[in-house]
Every structure is written in structure tokens, then in C-alpha cells.
Amino acid sequence: MSVSEAWVTAALEATIPQLFSRNAAEFPQRPALTDDGRTWTWAEAHHEVHALAAGLAAMGLQSGQTMLIMMANRAEHWLIDVAATHLGAVPSTLYPTLSQDQVHHIAQHSRARVVVLDGADQLRRWSKALRNTSTIEHVVVLDKAAMVSADHRFRTWKSLWRLGEQRLRDDPELVQRAWPAIQPNLPAVILYSSGTIGEQKGVVLTHRNICFAAAALHQATKPERHAARLCYLPLAHIAERMIGLYAAIHDVAHVHFCADQGGLLAALVRARPTLFFAVPGVWAKLAAAIRKVPAERRSDPQALRRLRARIGLDHAVWPASGAAPIEAALLEFFGAIGVDIFELWGMTETTGCVTTNHASAHRPGTVGRAVPGVEVRTAANGEVLVRGPLVCAGYLQPDGAIRPAADADGWLRTGDVGVLDADGYLTLTSSPSLGPGDPDQRKRWFDR
């Protein structure tokens, strides 16, 4: 079997709990998460995940049921998300800016059983859903000041953790028995659009979608194990879910958290990530920070290294941009200091990145070539079509069924229009008049 066949086979057979357990077994003392001055090793993260999973199981969360999360980027968010997957449950993070009506729609549509919130701000956004959604059985709040004692469904994060610890004392193998039964084709997450284009739709991604997409991104970018990642975009975004959660588990990375994007530059300098994705607006802000440095201090290789370190990108092997075209002037500016920004393209329905430039294959002006194991072609009208294991299972329906997003031959209509050159590099152009179809498929990697 060739190397390429070996990684594909492994990815198609993997699940999130399997990869997570591998990390804890093989690298127990390596750092896994760092947040607010605290670091968890993979062994410690493994214990936390099992305790939280046992607590969720004690509350009645079962395989196939949905858990909704509205929390900032923090270790607790990451840990409870992974914990739910160990039970075969399906977590979903909601955008932090959603209105009460949008939250209510998602809570009803997903038939959520458990809700996990940060504190008072999130609780206000959930007030309508909590009054009117009959399926919600438990609400976990990280900030105990947000507890609603009069509502029997509420419990604090600490009480959930203690409940799980007690269950593990009574039955130490509870979680260890549960996760091996999870099959790769089962749902692992539901991601809802932000609602900017029509009605919010729940995109269902399986363990196979996620593990393959993480492996394909690894093949394209080649990050070293144990290198840093920065989790700073909302985990409702497929980009952050892939880079800061799923691909981080696949790559045995060390994830650092930034809960407030106002502190992004400082967080970048602390973490020094190897893989870093940002929208063009973020790259523009980073450029503004560099421009404050006098030009004479940007004149030699040592000064350029210091400049890259000043913005925390001195270790980046894949500084990437997507969601919208990035100005050529920004690409030239960063290229001049030794940071080649790699443009990419993807969407939620493709579990993130479909095409990307990278160090071994870079053609400026394009969004790169397809990641390994994925097919990309264009239809007669220029619409970009995608086929491969990273194409989602489909869209969640109100009755719990999943409507396929791809056609009978496995091709996904993306709604984006582009041109493929002779070497397979994709250049995106304008959207055509596609006629009847799914308007939500026109969204790119991000919805906001």
C-alpha cells in the first residue's frame, strides 16, 4: 500500500474520539490546551473529557441527540464539545450574536436536549428558546451567577463535572465503553448558517467528513506534531472547527485560546501558531500594526524575523486567507516581510478547505489546487462542483432526517463560479444566474 493510500484508509476509518484517545495514550505529557495561564496535557484533557462525558451521560444525553453550545473560545468549550462526541451525541456551536428568534429556531429545529452557556449574555439570547422548546432537558452554565435556581433544568459547570466524576468512580469504564461503538459515518457536528442568507440550515458533518478533511489538510500543509494553534474565531465557523479543534486533534497540536478578538495580536505573539487562518480584514489589521514600525527597521533579514515575531507569525508554515478576495497590496506587503499568505476556498458543506495554496504549490491570484483525495470540476455555466469524502452528509430536517446535499453521483453544487487552469489551480469569478437552487449554497467559508 502506498503512503497516500495508507493515510486515506486511516482517515476514512477514524473518529474524533479515536484520534483523541490516541493522543492521550501516545503523548500523555505533551501540552494539549492552554487558556488563561493554565495548560492541560493530553492526559489531563482526556480525564476532563471523560468526566464531562460521564456527566452528560448521567443527565441522559444519548447517541444521536443534539447538544447546543453558546460559549466564547475557551478550553471548556473545546472540552465539552469533544466530550459529547464520545457519547455519539452531536454538538453544535451557535454564533454568539444570534437573536432570540434565531436561537429559538435552531433549538427547535435541532431538537436539542442539552444547552451549554457561558453566562448572562448568552442566557438572554436563549430566553425565548428556554420558554418554548420542549426538548431542552438540561442547561449548563459556566458562570454560576447566571444560574436560574427556580428552573430545575439548570446546573453549574462544576456540578456537571462533579456528577461525571462520581459516575466514573462508580463505573470507570463508562466512557471507554461508549466511544468505540461510534461509526465513522455517524453525525459528529451540526453547523448552522448565521442566517444572513435566507433561513438558517443545519449542515451535518460526519466523523468521516471531519477526519478525512483534517488528514487532507495535513497532507497539504505538513505541520509538525505538537506545534501551536490559535483558536480565536467562533467555533460556529467551519474554519475554526477544523483548524482549532478537529485538525488540531489530528495533528496532536497545542491549542491556545483567544476569547476576545480585540486581544488577537497579543494572543498570536504568545501562541506563535504554525497554521493560521484569517479573513482579509484581520490581515489588514496585522499589516497596520507592522506599518507602525519605521521602514529603516525592516531592511535586513534579522529585522524581518523580528517583525514576523512581532505579530506572532515567525513559526507559521501556512498563513492563510479566505472568505473574500484579499487585496494584492496586502499579499505584496506580507510577502516583503517573508510571510506568504496562501489563499484558499471552501465552505461548511465541504468540511472547510477544498482548495488551497501552500508552500509546495503556490500560484498567487488563485485559491489553489484541490486538497488530496478531492475532485473539483466546473459545470458548463462555470459553477464549481466538488466530490470527495469531505462533502457533508446533508442538511438536517425538522423530523431528524438528513437531506443529501450532493447529487446521486456524489457531486456538490457549491454555487460559486470559477475557472480551473491546466495545472488544477482554481480562480473564483462572479456568480452566474443559476436558476432554481439552494441560495444557502452560495455562502463561502464564512457566513459573516
Automatic annotation (TrEMBL):
InterPro entries on file: AMP-dep_synth/lig_dom, ANL_N_sf
Any single GO CC term annotated in Swiss-Prot or TrEMBL for this entry: membrane
Pfam families to which the protein is assigned, alphabetical: AMP-binding (PF00501)
One of the record's GO molecular function terms: long-chain fatty acid-CoA ligase activity
Domain AMP-dependent synthetase/ligase, first and last residues per copy: 20-396
Sorted UniProt keywords: Fatty acid metabolism, Ligase, Lipid metabolism
Gene3D superfamilies linked to this entry: N-terminal domain of ligase-like (3.40.50.12780)
Family statement drawn from the similarity comment of this UniProt entry: Belongs to the ATP-dependent AMP-binding enzyme family.
Protein name, as recorded: Acyl-CoA synthetase
Species this protein is from: Saccharopolyspora spinosa
